[in-house]
Amino acid sequence: MPMTEQASGAHNPQPRPRSGGQQPVTEHVTGAQSLIRSLEEVGADTVFGIPGGAILPAYDPLMDSTKVRHVLVRHEQGAGHAATGYAQATGRVGVCMATSGPGATNLVTPIADAHMDSVPLVAITGQVASKAIGTDAFQEADIVGITMPITKHNFLVTKAEDIPRVIAQAFHIASTGRPGPVLVDISKDALQARTTFSWPPTMDLPGYRPVTKPHAKQIREAAKLITAARRPVLYVGGGVIKAGATAELKVLAELTGAPVTTTLMALGAFPDSHPLHVGMPGMHGAVTAVTALQKADLIVALGARFDDRVTGKLDSFAPYAKIVHADIDPAEIGKNRAADVPIVGDAREVIADLVQAVQKEHAEGHQGDYTAWWNDLNRWRETYPLGYDQPEDGSLSPQQVIERIGQLAPEGTIFAAGVGQHQMWAAHFVQYDRPATWLNSGGAGTMGYAVPAAMGAKAGAPAQTVWAIDGDGCFQMTNQELTTCALNNIPIKVAIINNGALGMVRQWQTLFYNQRYSNTVLHSGPEADGKQPSAGTRVPDFVKLSEAMGCYAIRCERPEDLDKAIEEANSINDRPVVVDFIVHEDAMVWPMVAAGTSNDEIMAARDVRPDFGDNEDD
After folding, report:
1. Residues designated as active site
2. Among 143, 300, 409, 559, which is most buried by a count of CB atoms within 10 Å?
3. What percent of the chain clears pLDDT 90, i.e. is strictly above it?
4. What is the DSSP string of 469-516?
5. Taking residues 434-461, what's their average pLDDT?
6. How open is the CA angle 605-607-613, to the nearest 5 degrees?
7. How far apart are the first and last CA of the chain?
8. How confident is the model at residue 14 (pLDDT cuts 50, 70, 90)?
9. Cα 445 to Cα 564: distance, rounded to the nearest angstrom
């Protein structure tokens, strides 16, 4: 099957095999032992998974490994998201493992999630014996066929001697070029057969040669456009973080003086606190960031893919702008918006070369004057800052809860968010000044991501505090992994933003469905009237549930108790902590661009459309 690049930045590669430079290793082993030895050699130190019949042979030698830690999760979806969280926090390949049939199919959602967000992941699944494949054997599923559209590549292994080569290739493919998930499906008889383990294996990937070095002519053209522009914007995507290019980005931004907007996947790639940062673009982006892209005469897209959540109605997006689009994946360039200057290459190399080219332009007397542009940008920033109102009934504001968690968190804290209102508030009201401190499901929008992703991040970066910011709806999808955290000494902290509803869907029902709250109220049955219930009627009781899973649990309902609850959570590091924040249910995420409309229609708040003081085309 073809192995094409599909990208948004090159990830830091997995460490070289440990035996590199040493004498080749040869051992007589089973296929299962060969699998574990291969994982050791590629540097995998943590695997998240659950045993079952087809994969069981691999679990026996795994018990003897002193280099690979296995974390026994409670659901395979948790294993996949944990591997993603591990990868996003560490920059290394995440690994998950499951058995055949339902075990493998339970990995489909996290694999699709990793594919959308370009996360390096290797998913290893057991398969029924090779002679039984295609016979509808017990617990058989064609996981290779099922995942083909959502993996960077996948393998079906039916011979024990192929295992080392395939594992080496899987880790190489997952971590180079545009990172992404790779599936390795291994038949049970291949795991049981006797074989010779030899390392390092010979890798043969004739169709896989990611382009990392950008074309010099394209770089020069981009530099000329940057210095000639009057209203440029650096539109930064997650590929910049995956390429480890954040230092180079800061140099480029400060050299040019151009405003920087960072997408949901790129928060932390450029410091939120930097004066050149104008915020996050998109459907719920900052007014200044959204408007900057709309009014720009040049957009320099770096490791971004012109996602529909950023562009809004595509044919009205950035009508005055020329486009420089740099990406590791040539398939992304021109996919949604035609590029005037396409640049294929690794974001780190692209930006480093752009810095040199812009410096040369400056030396030749070509330097952009963005004074008028910054006057506009600063006026918009001052007029339409991010903000929120406190509830009139004295209840907790969800924005304030998240803002205070960010302000009271120890330095270097990693934040993982679920999907919905709390995700947008966490993007807006926590300040991200470092890369790899913001983890979320951007492309797929997977509810249930936060808790297992936080678990994986904490397993990979045990010295850092990890907060999961979750909604009460998301939390009920994967909270069983708190048991995994409690039993494996993975002390994450979870903030449940509990408004008793599927908040983002409820917001849409408020705005677009005449406040008909069909099946979005979580705290009672079909007779629910949308009102917040008393504490005695909350089902489930998240404090009791969390305590039953081995966590320390707190409930916070009043603004005056907010800081005390957060500080108490931060002080406990010997077990997971869950804080049930009971917040006002009517809070909404603003700004907002309604789906399918132009970014020109952005609303700063409900019934508040920004006035930019211009009625002419720029």
Report:
1. 76, 138-139, 188, 504
2. 300
3. 88
4. EEEHHHHHHHTTHHHHHHHTT---EEEEEE-SB-HHHHHHHHHHSTT-
5. 98
6. 80
7. 48
8. very low
9. 32
Three-state SS sequence of 569-605? HHHCCCCCEEEEEEECCCCCCCCECCCCCCHHHCECE
Structure tokens at 378: 């600063």
Q: What is the pLDDT of residue 234?
A: 98
- In sign, the C-alpha dihedral spanning 499, 502, 508, 510 is negative
Which ranges in 214-271 belong to alpha helices (H)? 216-228, 239-242, 246-256
- DSSP character at residue 519: T
Query: Which of 87, 159, 89 has its CA nearest to residue 123?
Result: 87
Tokens of 301: 């897209």
Tokens 């850092």 correspond to: 464
The CB-based long-range contact list for 335-338 (8 Å cut-off, 24+ gap) reads 335/305, 335/306, 336/305, 336/306, 336/307, 336/308, 336/311, 337/306, 337/311
Pairing of strands 194-199, 25-30: antiparallel
Say how far apart CA 4 and CA 12 lie, in whole Å: 19
Place of tokens 């700063």: 604
CA distance 109 to 432: 27
CA–chain centroid gap for 605, Å, is 27
Residue indicated by tokens 């982006």: 285
Selection from 241, 129, 265 nearest residue 190 by Cα:
129
3-state secondary structure of 330: coil
The pLDDT score that the predictor gives to residue 49 is 98
Give the Cα separation of 433 and 125 in Å (integer): 38
Q: What are phi and psi of 307, to 5 degrees?
A: -65, 150
pTM of the predicted protein model: 0.93
**In the 8-state DSSP scheme, what is residue 20?**
T
Residue whose structure tokens are 């049955």: 525
CA distance 81 to 73: 11
Residue 136 φ/ψ region, left for φ over 0, alpha for ψ in the -120 to 50 degree band, beta for the rest: left
Compute the mean pLDDT over every residue in the chain, rounded to the nearest whole number.
93
- d(CA 240, CA 348) in angstroms, rounded, equals 7
Whether 610 contacts 287, CB under 8 Å: yes
- pLDDT range class, residue 8, cuts 50, 70, 90: very low
- Confidence label for 373 from pLDDT (cuts 50, 70 and 90): very high
Distance between alpha carbon 339 and the CA centroid of its chain, in Å?
Answer: 26
Phi-psi region of 134 (alpha: psi -120 to 50; beta: other; left: phi over 0): left
Please tell me which residue, 358 or 23, carries the higher pLDDT value: 358
- For the record, the structure tokens of 330 come out as 């040539």
- Give, as one character, the DSSP assignment of residue 272: T
Q: Please give the sequence-ordered ranges of beta strands (E in DSSP) within 59-203, or none if there are none.
A: 69-72, 94-98, 121-127, 153-157, 181-187, 194-199
